[in-house]
């Protein structure tokens, strides 16, 4: 067995030890598309929020190591209550998920009793427990259209809510939350990127502001972007989301050139996970994410209902 130096860990030794511990613990590593390259490279499965949720619901492994942010690991723990779910970077929170509380949502439900509640998967377990159904950026429109109600409380992302409103006749009541990474992308960023790469197609995430979406060629979730780039006829693409996705695009679509719409599109909490933390987490089986049973049972209904939407 290799000895890992905590002061200056060797990446090769870390990878070898992670592989050893995975076998020993019967563990699987899930990573979001925004994770750092080294973490993506040691993951067993990489995807967006919907893909990761679906994967977490079907795993047979005893241990799930979630390389992402807190709400993702919570979702995995809710879907697999008998599994040990680990979040290597315990402080990797999602700022947008913290922009609404269960108490605030209960007030909204009292104000609009005839409305269905759709919560973006980027929310806490407590908020999910107060919701009728969850959604992700890749299925938000389908989720809203699947509802019988004509009025929808949509939390917490105002930009995604605004995007969904373009494709439905339902009344969307959005909360004023936002993803700081996507919300700060501007029309000036789009104009500058097009100036530098005039032949490139602009793809943006639906968490972007409406005026940015209006200037884009296509709007996709992260996995939707990857599929479009890999299968599309174009050779150059400007990518309007967190820059971590560029690593996967380079691996999955090596014949395409992809440029960041904004080099400042960095989610600092997504970057908190590194190889050392993955190793330490597997070795100690901490930090473990556990959702209280009563909250998990209620939240599971909203998540499962989302997963049933096709």
UniProtKB/TrEMBL annotation:
Give the subcellular location.
Cytoplasm
State any GO CC term: cytoplasm
**What cofactor(s) does the depicted protein rely on?**
[4Fe-4S] cluster
EC number(s) recorded for this UniProt protein:
2.5.1.72
The record's keywords, sorted A to Z, are:
4Fe-4S, Cytoplasm, Iron, Iron-sulfur, Metal-binding, Pyridine nucleotide biosynthesis, Transferase
Annotated residues that bind iminosuccinate are located at: 32, 49, 120-122, 137, 205-207, 222
Superkingdom of origin organism: Archaea
**Which pathway, metabolic or otherwise, does it act in?**
Cofactor biosynthesis; NAD(+) biosynthesis; quinolinate from iminoaspartate: step 1/1
Q: Name one GO molecular function term.
A: 4 iron, 4 sulfur cluster binding
What SUPFAM superfamilies is this protein classified in? NadA-like (SSF142754)
Concerning its family, UniProt says: Belongs to the quinolinate synthase family. Type 2 subfamily.
Xref: PANTHER family: QUINOLINATE SYNTHASE, CHLOROPLASTIC, QUINOLINATE SYNTHETASE A
Q: Sorted alphabetically, which NCBIfam families does this protein's record hold?
A: nadA, PRK09375.1-2, PRK09375.1-4
> What name does the UniProt record give this protein?
Quinolinate synthase
Organism (species): Methanolobus zinderi
Task: State which gene encodes it.
Answer: nadA
């Amino acid at each position: 067995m290799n000895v890992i130096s905590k002061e200056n860990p060797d990446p090769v030794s870390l990878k070898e030890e992670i592989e050893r511990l995975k076998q020993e613990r019967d563990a699987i590593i899930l990573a979001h598309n925004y994770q750092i390259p080294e973490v993506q490279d040691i993951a067993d499965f990489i995807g967006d929020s919907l893909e990761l949720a679906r994967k977490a619901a079907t795993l047979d492994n005893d241990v799930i190591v979630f390389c992402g942010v807190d709400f993702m690991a919570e979702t995995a723990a809710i879907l697999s209550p008998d599994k040990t779910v680990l979040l290597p970077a315990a402080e990797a929170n999602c700022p947008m998920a913290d922009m609404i509380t269960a108490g605030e949502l209960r007030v909204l439900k009292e104000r609009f009793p005839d409305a269905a509640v759709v919560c973006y998967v980027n929310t806490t377990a407590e908020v999910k427990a107060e919701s009728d159904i969850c959604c992700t950026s890749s299925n938000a429109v389908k989720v809203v259209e699947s509802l019988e109600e004509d009025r929808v409380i949509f939390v917490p992302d105002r930009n995604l809510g605004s995007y969904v409103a373009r494709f439905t006749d339902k009344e969307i009541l959005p909360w004023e939350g936002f993803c700081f990474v996507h919300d700060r992308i501007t029309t000036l960023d789009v104009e500058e990127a097009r100036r530098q790469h005039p032949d490139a197609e602009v793809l943006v995430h639906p968490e972007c502001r409406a005026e940015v979406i209006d200037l884009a060629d296509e709007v996709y979730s992260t996995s939707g972007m990857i599929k479009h780039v890999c299968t599309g006829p174009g050779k150059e693409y400007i990518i309007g989301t967190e820059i971590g996705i560029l690593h996967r695009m380079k691996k999955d679509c090596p014949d395409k050139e992809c440029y960041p719409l904004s080099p400042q599109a960095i989610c600092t909490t997504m970057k908190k996970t590194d190889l050392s933390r993955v190793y330490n987490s597997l070795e100690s089986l901490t930090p473990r994410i556990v959702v209280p049973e009563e909250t998990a049972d209620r939240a599971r209904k909203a998540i499962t209902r989302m997963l049933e939407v096709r």
